[in-house]
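Troubleshooting log. The previous structure file for this entry was overwritten by mistake, so regenerating from the original sequence record. Sequence copied from the archived sheet and checked twice against the printout by T.R.
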Amino acid sequence: MLQSAQLLQNRYRLDRPLSQAAGRETWLATDTQTQEQVVVKLLAFSDAVQWNRVRLFEREAAILRQLQHDRIPQYRDQFCLDDRLLWFGLVHDYIPGRSLKEELSDRGKFSEDDVRAIAISVLEVLDYLHSLNPPVLHRDIKPSNLICSADNQIYLIDFGTVQDRIAKEGATFTVVGTYGYVPLEQLGGRTIPASDLYALGATLMHLLTGIAPADLPLQDSRSLVSLDASPALRRWLLRMIEPNFDRRFTSAKLALAALRSTQKTQNIQHKFVNQRIKIQKAPHRFRLELPMSYQVIVLPLLIAGMIALIFTLPIHSLATATLWIYGIWLTALLGVLPLFIFWLLTLPDAIATQVKINPQQFEICWKLLGIPIHRVRGETAEIDRVYSTTNRVKSGQFGIGISAGIHEYRLSPTGLKLDAEDCRKLAAEIADWLGLIEEAYDAEN
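Regenerated output below.
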């Protein structure tokens, strides 16, 4: 048995064990030649150890030797130790810091900003690994394999299950990875770059919720309703953890571009020709108000006043001032009010529209003179498209369309005299906040 203070290869002094399992030990050691701390991974060869573990160990050493990235531990040495039992040894840099598993245990759930920063950091590493020829697949991304260093850098460690080629269907395979973080195709023996993206997505979900993926029904999007995250990040995570790998991002580069795009759009606010349009944006709340056109109220009132004046002029000289005033208002009420109401109800200009969205639900409310006359609600996760549209009745009139599942909602603020560009901007404001990822991201730049 290996013990603390034991010297291996006349160079590596074992300080303390980092992990121990049957036939496999990982130690924090000191390189006596450089006086630097290193990690020594050891695998004991015996009848109880299967050959596939030996192959994985040798593969890890061979791949680490080739990797050059500032957030991956650098390979240092490899050796065999025959001490009544054959030991295979691998030495690489030690990254001082704490694993995200330890951080999660101590501090609880991570904030959305922290999760975004971690996602970007890990995706940059995966982009490097997946861009190699052949691509290097980690196959075991989880909180315990991500180290936060003293300078807040995220390192990807433990390449013990690494694979440097995409497995072919029908070939024999060994199931590797950790339950809950492993996608279906990896359980079936097929690993692709999107498999690492799934594992990263499951890891980020764990950090956001504080609940291990094995205890969280990730495949059911409705289980994410209580997730404390903006709609943009929710949608991005849903695509990362899609059970069907064809629906995930095809590469770390595309996932990174989409995540950065959702981060940028949260701070973009377009300017509109009509200053009465009101948009309020916060990480967990969006509100849009399209007010009623002033001319819809002013014009009928002017007409009412003119009609009332015409009807009351003949009796002006015969009636007292009080009767004359009452006559004006009575004539306006009986003669013009029905026309005024009909005008308001038939013109889209007279209807103010309010759109409110939070991470769980959305609401669209149409109001007449401040009084709600129609209201629809739905789940935010169902909104899959926001677009500008042309009014089918009035040629040249533009509006906004919102698609949520099988439902389509039309907002036509014609009284505000918005042109096609303004409507596109309005649609973009809503889509950007929701994090609706354009298909353009599916093409390599």
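The two ends are 54 Å apart (CA to CA). Archived copy saved in two places this time.
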